[in-house]
Specification:
The radius of gyration is 17 Å and the shape is globular. 57% of the residues lie in helices and 5% in strands. With 175 residues, the protein is mainly alpha-helical. A hairpin with a 5-residue loop joins strand 2 and strand 3. This is Zinc-or iron-chelating domain-containing protein. InterPro entries: Puta_zinc/iron-chelating_dom (IPR005358).
Length: 175
């Protein structure tokens, strides 16, 4: 059994190497996803659900939290209202304190790492977190082939997403 320190060191190394590994695989992944979009297997959603579940039996997001440290989710109106209520704030006060509008006119965090991420990688609003956080890395989503651009970004952020895509290419085949 690895100690917390050993797990932390190992994850730190994985996260340092991940952007380069993702970049090295980017052209291969783009070609794979282009083919997948044209002719997705009939059972793609089932395959993705299985790969996602298998990976997250081995992966503990609390060891990593790289998504929370490096990117911010989109906040829907429903997210804002739910989180503001949880924090006992008015939605407008929540927006002013934590959010900004990005170039796509979406509400996003004013800064990363996420304000709600603790030093222990726990989320202080976990039970009411944004939909984008609940669904990340989106590898078990229905009609998975439709979010290939998002997945290409996520493999550089999330070690689990990287592993799922690598297994997916083996399972579905490159040809």
């Amino acid at each position: 059994m690895l100690s917390f320190g050993q797990i932390f060191k190992r994850m730190d190394q994985i996260l340092r190497e991940l952007p380069k590994k993702a970049k090295d695989k980017q052209n291969e992944n783009k070609k794979f996803f282009a083919k997948l979009k044209k002719r997705p297997p009939k059972n793609l959603d089932y395959i993705m659900q299985e790969l996602h579940e298998e990976e997250f039996e081995r992966t503990d997001c609390l060891d990593c939290a790289n998504c929370c440290k490096t990117t911010g989710p989109l906040f829907t109106r429903a997210d804002i209202e739910r989180i503001a209520k949880f924090l006992r704030q008015k939605p407008q006060a929540f927006i002013e304190a934590y959010l900004r509008i990005d170039e796509d006119s979406d509400y996003v965090l004013q800064q990363v790492p996420c304000t709600f991420l603790g030093a222990d990688n726990y989320c202080s609003i976990y039970d009411v977190r944004p939909k984008a956080c609940r669904e990340f890395p989106h590898t078990d989503r229905k009609k998975f082939q439709q979010i290939s651009n998002l997945t290409l970004k996520n493999v550089a952020i999330c070690p689990a997403a990287f592993n799922i895509v690598e297994k997916m290419k083996k399972n579905i085949g490159k040809g």
